[in-house]
């Protein structure tokens, strides 16, 4: 271990420009509302409130810290070397320390998964990946596509060409398969998070010569709210972080000596390939600098070409698996499912995004600004802005190790790639930047030591900083984290319900259960069924009055007009897209309305149904249906289902009220009366 630290430390460089530039970039993006100064389409409307919280929190933490530092001269509030014994024991038995850190983290993350996030996939991304994991758990790559996909189609799921599967790369769902087999997929995130903690400890104690800093960084990483909350989720960012840390760990072992270490190079390559199978963009960000480093080693020492070869072969294994999976599902090795679903506009670059707007450099800079502004709160949830210590440490440092330079290069690549990506990745924090957490946490932990090295004769300053940190941590534990926990517990209430419980409680079996979704969800699914591409559907749905859509879609269905012909019939309705506003009639504000438009009987009925309460079909795709069959209620179009399941009893599932998260119940229906109403051309009863 000491040799590894010594080796990395010996390859340092006097490059204060790089960390100071990083400090300036992070400081500007993390403190100033850059997004509000530009016109790319995003803004931080909440900046004023959050900035005032940062200011008041900083005043409290620093003010109390200064007072305690002054009082420590007269009262026994300070003792040098308080944690020296713990640090010494942790480094004396590093494997035991790593195991304890990982076990503690696993328990914490598992508690979050169950008590805060209900042990369920709450975001559509989580749900669609769990859907694919359940397919993999059956030993299949896809399910047979439904005959009438409009009744069961959901976002991020492909259901054409006879195949029904998720748009996401296969690595994330594959990581969930053991959880599916154990009937506890919610444990996969906590397990991956715990492994990440152990790996982080393995990395930081090899690259950080100060034992107290490496232990402090590991504890901080395990307990950081941003890492902890995401580790309790089903998001694939968590498993991607785990594999990236495997790669970084292998890279630190590989480069700790000038002698070739092809085994560690192979492990690094395989880990980066596994990351590519989960999140290709994240893999590229860390693989490019690693490849350059390995090539540089090989050019300096020809024997290290064995490392390059080993890493390339190992990386090709999971990469080949991705190509094979793509070939079997989309029909082409280089065609990812999300591109098949959304088109080339889904990819990186400055172009029209799948949702209709143009992604420009200004919009990309706005997104980076939003990510860092959010990190200031979500990373540590401290009274002081979370990035304060990392920025200060970067500003104070004078030397960088080789691994520091690699991590800086990878971070820069990651930011550059997401600068060119159109989507705002916000869920439980700025999730696209989770892979920056190890770098930011290492530098945050380095700040006290960097300050002590810069001003060794200023003990009062050091005490003031430590007391300010302690006060900020108390605010985190007592106020900020409980607030965030309550916020997360109260969010996405409708996705937490057990959608099959009403049927079990009523003893309903072998039934056809129609699920009442919002009018807007019905319109989107019906356009998909007409063969309108997903990206075009998003543009149409966001730019056309819902009643106009209803009328034209009904005409297209009646005339069996599909594909490009359907798009040609729908596109002229966008002429009023600049005038439409969020619906003021329906509680589903994703629906659009044209001010002054008159709604006919059918549209009025759909609005009344929305006001009566609606729910979601998507959570049912990862729950056990038993003998029942669940499908989206599409009113007169339900005759297709009644003809397919003539012997099943019929029910409608909807909330007992319009309140968010209201419990669900089943309403018995008469197929004969419904057929009669539909054939008469009258709008079906609200049911």
List keywords for this structure.
687 residues, mainly alpha
Model description:
With 687 residues, the chain is mainly alpha-helical. Helix content is 60%, strand content 6%. The chain is built from 29 helices and eleven strands. A four-stranded mixed β-sheet has the order 9-6-10-11. Strand 3 and strand 4 form a beta hairpin. Helix 6 runs antiparallel to helix 9, helix 12 runs antiparallel to helix 13 and helix 23 packs parallel to helix 25. The longest helix is centred in the last third of the chain and has 32 residues. It starts with a helix and ends in an 8-residue tail after the last helix. The model has no long low-confidence stretch (mean pLDDT 91).
Read across the widest sheet, the strand sequence of neighbours is 9-6-10-11
Radius of gyration, rounded? 28 Å
Count the DSSP helices: 29
Q: Average pLDDT across residues?
A: 91
Poorly predicted ranges (pLDDT <50, ≥5 residues)? Answer: none
Taking the alpha carbons of the first and last residues, their distance comes to 70 Å
Estimate the helix proportion, in percent. 55-70%
What is the beta-strand fraction?
5-15%
The biggest sheet, with number of strands, parallel, antiparallel or mixed sense and barrel status, is: 4 strands, mixed
Shape: globular
User: What class, by secondary structure content?
Assistant: mainly alpha
Counting DSSP E segments of at least 2 residues, the number of strands comes to 11
């Amino acid at each position: 271990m000491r040799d590894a630290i010594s080796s990395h430390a010996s390859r340092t460089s006097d490059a204060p420009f790089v960390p100071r530039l990083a400090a300036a970039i992070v400081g500007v993006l993390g403190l100033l509302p850059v997004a509000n100064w530009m016109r790319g389409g995003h803004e931080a409307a909440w900046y004023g409130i959050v900035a005032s919280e940062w200011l008041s929190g900083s005043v409290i933490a620093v003010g109390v810290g200064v007072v305690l530092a002054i009082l420590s001269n007269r009262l026994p509030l300070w003792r040098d070397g308080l944690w020296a014994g713990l640090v010494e024991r942790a480094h004396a038995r590093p494997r035991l320390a790593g195991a304890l850190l990982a076990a503690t983290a696993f328990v914490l993350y598992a508690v979050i998964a169950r008590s805060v996030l209900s042990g369920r996939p709450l975001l559509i991304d989580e749900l669609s990946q769990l859907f694919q994991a359940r397919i993999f758990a059956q030993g299949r790559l896809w399910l047979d596509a439904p005959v009438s996909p409009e009744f069961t189609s959901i976002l991020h799921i492909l259901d054409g060409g006879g195949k029904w599967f998720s748009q996401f790369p296969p690595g994330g769902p594959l990581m969930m398969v053991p959880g599916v087999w154990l009937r506890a997929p919610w444990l996969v995130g906590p397990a991956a998070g715990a492994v990440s903690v152990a790996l982080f400890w393995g990395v930081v104690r090899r690259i950080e010569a100060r034992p107290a800093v490496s232990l402090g960084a590991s504890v901080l990483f395990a307990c950081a709210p941003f890492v902890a909350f995401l580790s309790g989720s089903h998001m694939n960012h968590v498993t991607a972080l785990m594999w990236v840390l495997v790669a970084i760990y292998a890279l630190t072992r590989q480069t700790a000596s000038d002698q070739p270490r092809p085994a560690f190079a192979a492990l690094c390559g395989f880990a980066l390939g596994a990351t590519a199978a989960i999140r290709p963009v994240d893999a590229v960000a860390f693989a490019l600098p690693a490849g350059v480093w390995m090539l540089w080693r090989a050019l300096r020492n020809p024997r290290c070409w064995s490392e390059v070869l080993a890493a390339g072969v190992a990386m090709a294994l999971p990469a080949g698996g991705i190509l094979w999976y793509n070939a079997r599902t989309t029909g082409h090795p280089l065609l990812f499912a999300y591109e098949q679903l959304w088109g080339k506009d889904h990819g990186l670059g400055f172009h029209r995004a799948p949702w209709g707007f143009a992604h420009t450099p200004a919009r990309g800079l706005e997104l980076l600004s939003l990510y860092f502004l959010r990190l200031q709160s979500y990373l540590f949830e401290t009274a002081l802005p979370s990035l304060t210590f990392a920025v200060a440490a970067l500003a104070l440092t004078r030397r960088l190790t080789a691994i520091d330079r690699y991590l800086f290069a990878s971070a820069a690549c990651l930011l550059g790639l997401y600068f060119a990506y159109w989507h705002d990745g916000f869920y439980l924090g700025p999730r696209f930047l989770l892979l920056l957490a190890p770098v930011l946490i290492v530098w945050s932990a380095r700040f006290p030591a960097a300050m002590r090295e810069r001003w060794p004769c200023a003990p009062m300053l050091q005490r003031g900083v430590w007391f300010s940190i302690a006060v900020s941590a108390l605010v985190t534990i007592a106020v900020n984290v409980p607030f965030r926990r309550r916020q997360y517990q109260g969010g996405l209430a409708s996705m937490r319900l057990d959608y099959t419980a009403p049927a079990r409680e009523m003893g309903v079996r072998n039934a056809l259960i129609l699920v009442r979704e919002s009018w807007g969800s019905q319109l989107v699914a019906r356009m998909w069924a007409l063969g309108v591409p997903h990206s075009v559907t998003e543009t149409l749905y966001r730019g056309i009055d819902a009643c106009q859509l209803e009328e034209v879609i009904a005409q297209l269905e009646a005339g069996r007009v599909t594909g490009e012909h359907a798009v040609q019939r729908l596109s002229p309705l966008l002429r009023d897209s600049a005038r439409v506003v969020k619906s003021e009639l329906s509680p589903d504000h994703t629906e659009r309305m044209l001010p002054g438009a008159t709604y006919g009987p059918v549209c009025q009925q759909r609005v009344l149904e929305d006001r009566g309460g609606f729910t979601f079909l998507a959570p049912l795709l990862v729950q056990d249906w038993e003998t029942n069959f669940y499908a989206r209620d599409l009113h007169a179009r339900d005759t297709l289902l009644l003809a397919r399941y003539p012997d099943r009893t019929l029910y409608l599932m909807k909330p007992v009220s319009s309140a968010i998260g209201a419990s669900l119940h089943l309403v018995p229906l008469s197929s004969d009366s419904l057929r009669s109403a539909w054939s008469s051309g009258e709008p079906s009863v609200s049911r």
